[in-house]
Amino acid sequence: MTETLTYTQVGDYLLPDLTLDEPPRELAEPLGRYARMRKAFLKEHRSINYTRLLLTEKLYPHLREVEQTATARVEQMMKALVERNTLPDKATDPIGWTAKMNTLKAQAEEMVLHELIYS
């Protein structure tokens, strides 16, 4: 089944009447951090893929999937990193514990960014 395009004349030009369907309610929620990073990467470095996903209405489902996967991977990696590393006692050295946790989270996020966001 092929759809026919309609056009609207604006001055001397015929512009196609292109519209996107309304997104489902669950897709209208704000994007998370990893989804926004993926969107910016696609827009800047993979513009053809970005445009293709946008025009086929697959961009936001893709971004939601990336967000969920990245969040789950960071949590999974954090658990593994905490098990492998010795942490300072949170009660006696809260600043040291926080610094170590921040370092571990940065490591986990860096791996996830290279695997999911910037590929």
Brief digest:
The chain has 119 residues and is mainly alpha-helical. The chain has helices at residues 33-45, 47-55, 59-84, 94-117; strands at residues 7-10, 13-16.
Structure report:
The chain has one domain. The protein is mostly helical. The longest helix is centred in the middle third of the chain and has 26 residues, at 59-84. It has helices spanning 33-45, 47-55, 59-84, 94-117; strands at 7-10, 13-16. The chain is built from four helices and two strands. Helices cover 61% and strands 7% of the residues. Strands 1-2 form a two-stranded antiparallel sheet.
Number of strands: 2
Distance between the termini: 34 Å
* Structural class estimated from helices and strands: mainly alpha
- Enumerate the spans where pLDDT stays under 50 for 5 or more consecutive residues: none
Topology, pairings included?
Blueprint: E1 7-10, E2 13-16, H1 33-45, H2 47-55, H3 59-84, H4 94-117
Antiparallel strand pairs: 1-2
Helix pairs in contact: 1-2, 1-3, 3-4
